[in-house]
Here is the input.
Amino acid sequence: MNTGSETNSINDEKTVKKQYSSSAGLSTRISIHDKYSINKQGFGNWIFSNYDIRSGMRVLELGCGTGSMWTGHEDVIRLCSGLVMSDFSEAMIIKAKETVGEYPNVSYEQIDIMDIPFEDESFDAVIANMMLYHVPDITRGLKEVRRVLKPSGTFYCATFGIHGIMEYLSGILSVYGVEDNTDRSFTLQNGASVLGEVFADVSREDYEDSLAVTDIDDLVDYIYSLQSMTALSSIPRDSIRATLSSHMKDGVLTVPKEYGMFIAG
Here is the structure.
């Protein structure tokens, strides 16, 4: 018999699998950042600017999603002696392969971070961006990361803060019963302490940005792509659009973002 916590874990895992069962929803969520972010460097480019990937390194990415963050970084790909692009979702692996393409040093695999199928000390760098809060047992997953990393290896993991998009949208849409029930198991606020249970050295880098949305329909699409916004399923789209539009100023809805990353080793 499952305990309550085990049941919640199973339900959370099912929700995550549903949200990432196809690349469409993730693409919607990525596109709004590409279109409306104030910081034109781009989160993916900023993440890459923090990587120290040198010639001959072997790299593993967990939760690679659509692989879109590797676009434009063919030089980094070619530096690697081996790059394993992985995700727990088969649909994401298929999409990532389409996005990144074929390279002799790149492989695509379906992998669960809690059971990484590689030998100890196999990689110089491991990457897990915007996904650790989905892991049912984060400590177990991080121990697996530490195991497959070389002693001098580095772990890169981007995440969100609690004072960003979801907190803002939940406040605006609270009239419809929406609550900010985002999984906060790994955020900018608590990530250092979580990583500190497994890694000796942890540093945090913050990415300064916000959204300046001019077409509310794009934001509505974003909202409906989120499993955490299921409370809105019975609310007419026009009502959501009107509520969001009422907060616009001079034709712009400014939405705060709080993103960053941890570098551990």
